[in-house]
Amino acid sequence: MSYERLKPELTTAKEQVEELKRIVPEAFADGKINWQTLKEALGEHLEDEGAEAEHFGLFWPGKREARRMAATPSKGTLVPVPGEGIDEETTRNIFVEGENLEVLKLLQKSYAGRIKMIYIDPPYNTGNDFVYEDDFREPLEEYLRRTGQVDEESKPWTTNTRADGRFHSKWLSMIYPRLRIARNLLRDDGLIFCSIDDGEGANLRVVMNEIFGEENFLQQIVWKNKYGPGAQTRGFGNLHEYILCYSKTPIESISAHLSEDEMKAYKNKDAKFAVRGGFVTQPLATKSKDDRPNLVYPIVWKEKEVWPDKQWIWSKDRMMQALENDELVIREENGRFSVRFKQYLKDENGQIRKAKPLSLMLGPFNQDGTAEIRKLFGKDVFDFPKPAELIKFFFSMVVNDRDDKDGIYLDFVAGSGTSAQALMELNKEDQGNRTFICVQMAENCETDSIAYKEGFRTIAEIATERIRRVSKEIKKEIKAQSGLFKDKHLDLGFKIFRLSKSNHKIWQDYDGTNLSELEAKLDLFETPLVDGWKPENLLTEILLLEGFPLDSKIEKPRDHKKNTVHHVSSEFCEHRLLLCLDKKIEQETIQHLKFEENDVFVCLDSALTDQDKMRLADVCKLKTI
What we know:
Blueprint: H1 12-23, E1 28-29, E2 32-33, H2 35-42, H3 63-71, E3 76-80, E4 94-97, H4 100-111, E5 115-120, H5 139-146, H6 167-185, E6 186-196, H7 198-212, E7 217-224, E8 240-247, E9 254-257, H8 260-264, H9 273-276, E10 279-283, E11 285-286, E12 299-301, E13 304-306, E14 311-312, H10 316-324, E15 328-333, E16 336-344, E17 354-355, E18 360-362, H11 366-377, H12 388-395, E19 398-399, E20 408-411, H13 418-430, E21 435-440, H14 450-453, H15 459-480, E22 495-501, H16 515-523, H17 535-545, E23 553-555, E24 566-569, E25 577-580, H18 587-592, E26 600-603, H19 610-617, E27 621-624
Parallel strand pairs: 4-21, 4-22, 5-6, 5-20, 7-18, 20-21, 25-26, 26-27
Antiparallel strand pairs: 1-2, 3-22, 6-8, 7-8, 9-17, 9-19, 10-16, 11-14, 12-13, 15-16, 23-24, 24-25
Helix pairs in contact: 3-6, 4-6, 6-7, 12-13, 13-15
């Protein structure tokens, strides 16, 4: 079986077409969609064609191209950068330096439907901030030119000024394809949080409604992020931003951990304090709900009947059980009764209760984010970082009562690396096993900035150094608190990957008529790999193409003495991947290869004889390059 089928042409868009073909097979002929048949099959679900130009939605110049961009496969790959991370052999945390749209495309096959939560803090389009203007024809080449990774003259990062006639359109075309792919990456119960301000807040909400569905809108959180208006404020003092929260599919419930101030409110004590902690009281009578006759009944207290003014909120059975368990607080004053129930800090198993997250958040504040940077670096090497406590709050949320403290958390606009710090600190606090993927472009630091003077040339360098320093600080804290993680490993490492060109030659269509030129072009593809390819880089590319995540377990068994054979496995994949990228595979190696059902073996096509290919194809899924 040829390895050609693994190339990036297998995209989510193609998979969607295959699903459509499965549902409406009659709408396909010769591998193409027959639109008239498809319309007939959809019937009443189609909008009247006469109203096509008037249906509801957000439209802007470039939207069609932005939609295509989400489905256009990347021509790049990710290459490992060994030696710059921490605990690289054991960690599952990933940092990727690269243009985030290209990186998201490369992650699709390995991480589709596997990300638990996403947080991003994209450019707000203020007129001064960075906006990457995508080159829709050659996005990878454009990125490599801008970062000086190709020989052509590098281009500067740009700003989207308000004087531009397509000020909002450019921003929307930037954010749209990234959010489309982000949705593909989320688990069915996954959440995405996106920070924004008033500049693009309304447009972003309409775009996210389109991509995620209005039914999956959870909240537009108003976050008070400043203590007060600045001294130079002449109009309204702007003290807030927004965080839009969506789920991938409708969820049943969402809850959050109590803050320290909220826990302090549980100060009342009774005989259950040792197990359940303190309690607060909540009223049991209500006047606001619809009439429910079954909720109108008396409670007998000190030989007196206590009736609600209108009705109780609990059934009689539940009320009697609470009364018997001493979980009610009843008081009488001037002949009137107050009946309240005890709400404990902890449940019967000693687990601290959760709370409903609120649509209004008072802090943490921008100053807290700046203080975190200053504490780690000694100077303000990054402007306006989000505070780690903000992201930690989102990452700690519990969906559908599943408080599992694990999963993959993604930030593809990583900035200074706040999300990585938040996740590491959260794992330390609750002994969780969450892992992160952070993506940040190699955006240049201004030459007159504090960061540049401190030796940082790109924002990605600041982020990776921040993760190193946070890891070091947490390790110090754990060492000082001996026994904190005595029986459990805390992952404080990370691997670094960098966006680069594919190891496979990319075919460019030839429109000329010169036969000699065409033959010369074909001769270049006699071997499918680029000159100077490196095995470790090709290994990573094959992992992604085969759907194996970047933190897969890679082993090199010693019984393959004459060849290097990598055995790759992952909890997300039911089969193993075996790779040998040597120029020739010896007979002894072939004899020692042991395959399990559905295992895939990848090697160079020239490394095997035709006879060996036939033998291996009988015992595994053979794919050659």
